[in-house]
Amino acid sequence: MTDNGRSPWLLGGAIALGTAILALVGWGQVKPVEVPWPLRWTHAPVLFAAVDSELSGPLEEALELWRKNTTHRVRLARPGETVDVVVHVDPALDVLGRASVQSRAGKILTVSIAVRPRPTLPVLLQEIGHSLGYGHPIAAPSGHIMRSSDPGSRDWRGLEGGDPSSVG
Fold it and tell me: Which of 144, 148, 118 is CA-nearest to residue 136?
């Protein structure tokens, strides 16, 4: 093997490229995230109900995280209360989850959330976000609740009352 003087340049180039990639990843973890929020409820708390018993526990866990990490007042409905958001399992669903939001003049009227059997926590978190009127932010970093592909469960930036230090 001969050293024709290129080795230091190649090493320097590799280090510079690695540093640039790390800087981009780091910037994604600290930059503000602008989450579209075109629709709103006119009341709080927003009451959820699980149609399928297998969803009650996971849905309550997801709602608790929304209460803990944002200012949204969301909870499961008690017997006899009017339900705002119905959550059910649809084994034939072609995506992990889907929130069908009915609205008028920017105000949410009702929501139906469909999820596949045994939904993951990030899927439930994101569908709850859609039921609260949030959309997908452009170029959301990994781990963000409202990231369109591969949603996370630890980054709440850009959500009402979302903790900017919740990345982790």
Answer: 148
The verdict on residue 36 lying in a domain is yes
Residue among 12, 129, 127 at smallest CA distance from 69 = 129
How many distinct structural domains can be found in the chain? 1
Alpha-carbon distance 100 to 161, whole Å? 24
- Residue 144 class from Cβ within 10 Å (0-12 exposed, 13-18 middle, 19+ buried)? buried
Q: pTM higher than 0.85 for the full model?
A: no
Residue-level pLDDT at 104: 93
Mean pLDDT of 79-96: 94
Question: What value, to the nearest 5°, has the Cα angle with vertex 84 and ends 101 and 111?
Answer: 15
Residue located via tokens 């980054």: 155
- Residue 122, domain CATH: 3.40.390.10
| 150 phi, psi to nearest 5 deg | 55, 65
